[in-house]
Every structure is written in C-alpha cells, then in structure tokens.
Amino acid sequence: MADPTPAGLIPVADLVERILDTVSPLPAFPQPLMDTLGLALAEDVVAPISLPSFDNSGMDGYAVVHSDVEGASEDAPVSLPVVGEIGAGRATILALSPGTAVKIMTGAPVPKGATAVVPYEWTDRGVARVEISRAPREGQHVRPAGDDVREGDMLLEEGTPLGPRHLGLLAAVGRATVRSRPRPRVVIISTGSELREPGSTLARDAIYDANSFLLAAAARAAGAIAYRVGIVPDDPTAFTEALTDQLVRADLIVTTGGVSEGDFDVVKETLSSHGSMWFGGVAMQPGKPQGFGTIGVDETPVFTLPGNPVSAYVSFDTFVLPAIRRMMGMLPYERPTSRARLTHGISSPEGKLQLVRAVHESDRGGTFVSPVGGHGSHLIGDLAAANALIVVPPETTALQAGDMVAIRKLDEEF
Ligand SMILES: Nc1nc2c(c(=O)[nH]1)N[C@H]1C(S)=C(S)[C@@H](COP(=O)(O)OP(=O)(O)OC[C@H]3O[C@@H](n4cnc5c(N)ncnc54)[C@H](O)[C@@H]3O)O[C@H]1N2
Ligand code: MOO
C-alpha cells in the first residue's frame, strides 16, 4: 500500500519515537517519603519486617488462655485473677500463666501463652478479678505477627506510581526514604511580540499570553516542576538570551510560537542552525508545524510547539507528555486511549491524525463522546469546554454518529 502520509509531513509515531529515543529517565536517588508522592518508584521494595511485627491485641480487653474461658456464658461466667496490664508500646508482661488474665489494650503485645483476647464488653471490667460472661474462639482478637505482610515479601515493584496508600505501607515497614526519579524541571517560553502578561492593559494589536499558563499547568499536572518564563519578543537576540539563561535550570524546554512560515518566526530561525534540532511538519491536525532536538552541553531536549493555543496544547499532550513521563520513569509514556460512541458525525483530512476536541460522558449505556466547537486552532474557549480528544486515524476521512472511536480522556491520571 502506498504511504498515505501527505508529502513533506512525517507520521506522528515517527516523531514520538525520535523523542523517546532522545530523552532518558532522570537518575534516581533516595528521597524522603513525602517528596515521592506521585513519583515512580525506582527500586523493588522487599518487606524488611513483618506486619504486624509481633502478636498483638485487636481489642481493649483481657488476654487469657482460651481453655480457661471456653465454657464462659451469661449463666456461668468464669472468674479469673487480673495479674497486670499491658498498654500499646509497653511490653510490661511477657508471659501469661494459665488460670490468670492480663488487661490488654488494642495494639499491645500479647503475652506468651495467651491464646485469646476477651473484649471489655464481654466482661464486668474488673480490676483485681474479672468475670467473663462470653467465650471467645481460640485465637480471637489476637492479630498474629506476619498476618498482613511477611518479611521478605515483594511489597512494591519498580515503576509503581507512588500514591498515599503506598507511602503508608512504606512508612509501616520503616522506610524513611525510597529511591525515585525527581520531577523534571520544565521551562516554558512563549514567543511573540504581540503577547502581553494577563493583568496588563491591551492595545488593539496585542493579546494575552495564554500558552505559557496552559502548558506550565499541563506540565505540572503531568508531574513536572514547571517554570513559566516571561514573554520573549520575536527578536533572535532576546530569544537566544532567554534560552541560554534557562538552560541552567531546565531538564526540558518548551517554546511556543514562531515555527511556521511567517516572516518573524524567530524560534525556527534561531534554532535551525543547531544541528541537533529538527523542524518540519507532522501529519496531524492541529499541531502540524513542530520542532524537536537538543541544545547546550547537557543536550537539553527542546520542543518548539506551534503558537496557536489549541495546537500548542494538543502538541504538548502528544509529544511533551510522553517525554516528561519517560524522564520520570512512568509507564505508559503516552496517554492511553479508551473507546466511546460518537454522538455526531465528523469529517477528517486524509493522511493526518486528527485530534478533535470533545466532551465524554458515561452512563449505564456506556461512554459517549461529542465534538465541541470548531476546527480552528485559535479556539481556546472550546478547548476549555472539552475533556477529551477524539483520535481520528490518518486513513479515516469520515465518521458517523454511533461509530465507536478512540478517545484520550484529558483529565484522567494514568
Ligand atoms: N503560510 C503558512 N502559514 C501558517 C502555516 C503554514 O503552514 N503556512 N501553518 C499554520 C499553522 S497550522 C499553525 S499551527 C500556525 C503556527 O504558527 P507559529 O508557531 O509560527 O505561531 P505564531 O505565528 O507565533 O502564532 C500563531 C497564532 O497563535 C497566537 N499565539 C502565539 N503565541 C501565543 C500565546 N502565548 N498565547 C496565546 N496565543 C498565542 C498568535 O497570536 C497567532 O494568532 O501557523 C499557521 N500559519
Ligand atoms: O497545525 Mo495548526 O496547529 O492546525 O493550527
């Protein structure tokens, strides 16, 4: 079959592959537990201790020898002398003699010889002697050592994204630090002499810089540390200076604007001379003009995204997000797609992957997806209304209402 990619454009997958080949995971190091929330674990964690680490009581009550109390009932209570008390964190009594009881609190170590705990509610709560009016089963309310986790068990595998429950488990087995990869520092630079900071007054020929907020937020949502650099005008010297300044703190740089065919497309003009930068068209809509490569002695990856806000956002999701996730050691790199039923027909250009802004909703009948707004890549209002992108493959030129399609759910963690 002939290559359906339009002349002069490269397939999206080719650029993604080039990016993933260029970008490497950041080196891992031990980090304090609370700093690792949302990061990928960079080691296999084997349980250094069992949990519980000793037999302990599941109730506030009395530790007893089961055979002493197995006949206890309301009508025939069993009376035992209370020989002491064990609180949580106080292993004051190590062994229990038959024919006696020891007061014990929840979590406190069960003395050797005790084979059940009688909760307060089944007794008269006696201090010197206790009357037991209900028999526990053998072992009841004793939480045995290793019941939950056994020393040597594989607890968490390398690559696990660390959430609150994982941090809880790591702390429970005594880990104060864990090896993980740091958050990449992502620098976002908006280029364009028409751009102004939100909050300033606008002249008729100017617009507010939306992209750096859009992309810095997207980078942060992806787990990166995002630095939003101020607006850089369409001036090669200013752009080169801004880039050089940022190189010291960046693991990855994203620029927007200045990569198409305009007379003042300063990004392309300035970076084209770097042998390690590629500029060209990708067979996707929106997001055709792209640039990617590395600059500086550290070979810092640079993404030069198109200026139209929708193009910039969709390009970020397609190209920059996988790079950030690879740096963090998070799998999968690319946002997964799921299936949804289309509510309206759409057309799509032949040979290009089209990413259509859409809203997905689920009910008992399944997941449905509706396109929102028009095709224009300046329509940031419609972008904000969307929570999904419909992924229309290059070979598809028309889809009907009722067709099953692939969608990227934009706000979902993966
Ligand atoms: N003759 C051609 N013109 C254009 C082509 C083409 O192939 N031939 N491609 C079009 C496509 S597709 C896109 S996408 C844009 C990309 O252009 P640039 O990356 O050079 O971006 P700019 O020209 O600087 O800006 C485009 C558009 O976006 C607005 N913009 C830019 N930065 C921001 C920002 N930070 N916040 C909000 N809006 C921003 C800018 O004002 C322009 O309206 O090129 C087409 N043209
Ligand atoms: O490729 Mo552009 O991103 O369509 O507006």
From TrEMBL:
Entry-linked Pfam families: MoCF_biosynth, MoeA_C, MoeA_N
Role noted for this protein: Catalyzes the insertion of molybdate into adenylated molybdopterin with the concomitant release of AMP.
Record-level Gene Ontology MF annotations: metal ion binding; molybdopterin molybdotransferase activity
GO cellular component: cytosol
Residue span(s) of domain MoaB/Mog: 187-326
InterPro entries: MoaB/Mog-like_dom_sf, MoaB/Mog_dom, MoeA-like, MoeA_C_domain_IV, MoeA_C_domain_IV_sf, MoeA_linker/N, MoeA_linker/N_sf
Gene Ontology biological process: Mo-molybdopterin cofactor biosynthetic process
Family affiliation: Belongs to the MoeA family.
Top-level lineage group: Bacteria
Required cofactor names: Mg(2+)
UniProt keywords, alphabetically: Magnesium, Metal-binding, Molybdenum, Molybdenum cofactor biosynthesis, Transferase
Entry keyword annotation includes Manganese: no
Catalysed reactions listed for this entry: adenylyl-molybdopterin + molybdate = Mo-molybdopterin + AMP + H(+)
Enzyme class: transferase
Claim: Metal-binding is one of the keywords in the record: yes
Pathway annotation: Cofactor biosynthesis; molybdopterin biosynthesis
Protein name stated in the entry: Molybdopterin molybdenumtransferase
